[in-house]
Design brief:
This protein is α/β, with parallel strands linked by helices. The chain has twelve helices and 13 strands. Helix 5 links the parallel strand 2 and strand 3 (101-105). The longest helix has 19 residues, at 248-266. The chain is globular. The structure holds pyridoxal-5'-phosphate (PLP).
Length: 369
C-alpha cells in the first residue's frame, strides 16, 4: 500500500542532499578508498568531537558496537549484565553471545531502565550495566552512574537511538566506559546500509575495539594479537556519514519542532499519553528518534491510522521475555508488558512536512473525539 504519510522516507532524505552525497560517493569510488581509509579516520574524529569523547571506532553495526564493547571490557562466562527487555533484541543478544547472563529490569514511564529497581538486581556476579537511551531520551544517568560506581560496575551505553541527545548537558555515549551507536538507515544519523560506532575516553578500550573489528591484526606490524572479527565500518559509509553528520543538528531541530507540533495538537486528548515536549524538562535534551505515544485502544487506533494512509510502527508488540525461544520467561516486568499493549510510534523524521504532521494529528483526533 502507498501511504500518504510513510513511516520513513529514504528517497526524500537522499534528494535533500543529493549533490553532496553523489560527489563524495564518486570521490571515494574513483580513488578506490574502500577499507580503513582517511574518510573513516576523519569520520571517527568528527564523531568523537560531536559526542565530546576522546575516541570513536567505526564498526559495522550498532549490534557489533555493543558486542565488541562487552568483549573489550572483558565480559564473559560467569558474568551477569543488567539491562532492560523493552529494547531492540540486539541489546540482549550480545550479552548472550559473550557467554554472559542477561538480567532484565523493568522500565519506568519514560520507557527507560527504572533505576530505582536497578540496585536490587545486582548480585556478586554482576559485571556491567547496559542502559538503553530509548526513543532519543537519556536514562537517568546521574543515578545510574552513582549506582555503577558504588558497586564497581562497568557501564556500556546502548545509545543507538540517542545520538545528539544529552542529560545535564552531557551527551549520550559519553557517560559509560563506551557508548554504542547505530547508523541503521532509520536512525537519526543513518548510513546507506548498516554501520555503527563505539565512543570512549579509554585509550586501551579504543585500541582493543580497533583490533577486534579487524581480525585482531595490528596493521602496522602484521602481528595478530587476538582472535577478532570482521566488523569494520566501510570507508564509503564513513564518507557518507561524515557528510550527513554536518546536517544532524538541523535534523534534530526539525524533529524537536515536529514533537512540539504533535504535542500542541494532541496533548488535550486524555486517552493518549505523549512523550514530554521538547522544553519541558531542561535536564533533558531529547532527539525524538521515535515519537511513541500510549493508548489503551492501541490496536483500534493503529488500524484507523493505517486505513487513513498513515504508516505506524509498534516497538514492540510482544515483550522480549515472552518470546519463548529466548529462554527469558522467568522475568516478570509489569511495565514492559503493559507497554507492549499500548505503544505506537507516529511518523517522525526531518522530511515529514508540517502538513503531513497536521494530517496525522487530525486523524488521531478523529479517532479520539
Ligand atoms: C538499532 C538499535 C540497535 C542495533 O543497531 P544495528 O545497527 O541495527 O545493529 C541496538 N539497540 C537499539 C536500542 C537500537 O535501536
Amino acid at each position: 500500500m502507498q501511504y500518504k504519510v510513510p513511516f520513513v522516507n529514504y528517497p526524500a532524505h537522499y534528494h535533500s542532499m543529493k549533490k553532496e552525497l553523489d560527489a563524495v560517493i564518486e570521490e571515494v569510488l574513483s580513488k578506490g578508498d574502500l577499507i580503513l581509509r582517511s574518510q573513516l579516520r576523519q569520520f571517527e574524529d568528527t564523531m568523537a568531537s560531536f559526542v565530546a569523547v576522546k575516541y570513536a571506532v567505526g564498526v559495522n553495526s550498532g549490534t557489533d558496537a555493543l558486542h565488541l564493547s562487552l568483549l573489550a571490557a572483558g565480559v564473559g562466562h560467569g558474568d551477569e549484565v543488567i539491562t532492560v527487555a523493552h529494547t531492540f533484541v540486539a541489546t540482549v543478544a550480545v550479552i548472550v553471545h559473550c557467554g554472559a547472563k542477561p538480567l532484565l529490569v523493568d522500565v519506568g514511564e519514560d520507557y527507560n531502565m527504572d533505576v530505582e529497581q536497578l540496585e536490587q538486581s545486582i548480585t556478586p556476579r554482576t559485571k556491567a550495566i547496559m542502559p538503553v537511551h530509548l526513543n532519543g531520551r537519556l536514562c537517568n544517568m546521574e543515578k545510574l552512574m552513582d549506582i555503577a560506581s558504588k558497586h564497581n560496575l562497568i557501564v556500556i551505553e546502548d545509545a543507538a537511538q540517542a545520538l545528539g541527545a544529552s542529560f545535564d548537558g552531557k551527551k549520550a555515549g559519553s557517560f559509560g566506559l563506551t557508548g554504542c551507536f547505530s547508523f541503521y538507515p532509520a536512525k537519526v544519523l543513518g548510513a546507506a546500509g548498516d554501520g555503527g560506532i563505539v565512543t570512549t575516553n579509554n585509550k586501551e578500550i579504543a585500541e582493543r575495539i580497533g583490533l577486534l573489528r579487524d581480525h585482531g591484526e595490528n596493521r602496522t606490524s602484521g602481528d595478530i594479537l587476538c582472535f577478532g572479527f570482521n566488523s569494520r565500518l566501510d570507508n564509503l559509509q564513513a564518507a557518507i556519514l561524515d557528510v550527513k553528520l554536518k546536517h544532524l543538528p538541523q535534523w534534530i531541530e526539525r524533529r524537536r519542532q515536529l514533537a512540539s507540533l504533535y504535542h500542541e495538537g494532541l496533548s488535550d486528548l486524555s486517552e493518549l499519553k505523549l512523550p514530554p515536549a521538547p522544553q519541558s524538562d531542561t535536564s533533558y535534551f531529547d532527539v525524538y528518534q521515535n515519537y511513541v505515544v500510549r493508548s489503551q485502544e492501541r490496536d483500534r487506533l493503529v488500524a484507523h491510522l493505517r486505513e487513513s494512509g498513515i504508516e505506524i510502527l509498534i516497538s514492540w508488540p510482544k515483550p522480549m521475555h515472552h518470546h519463548k525461544a529466548l529462554g527469558l520467561g522467568h522475568f516478570h516486568l509489569p511495565v514492559t508488558e503493559q507497554l507492549s499493549d499500548e505503544v505506537l510510534s507516529l511518523p517522525m523524521y526531518p522530511e515529514l512536512s508540517d502538513k503531513q504532521a497536521e494530517f496525522v494529528i487530525q486523524t488521531v483526533r478523529n479517532f479520539c473525539t
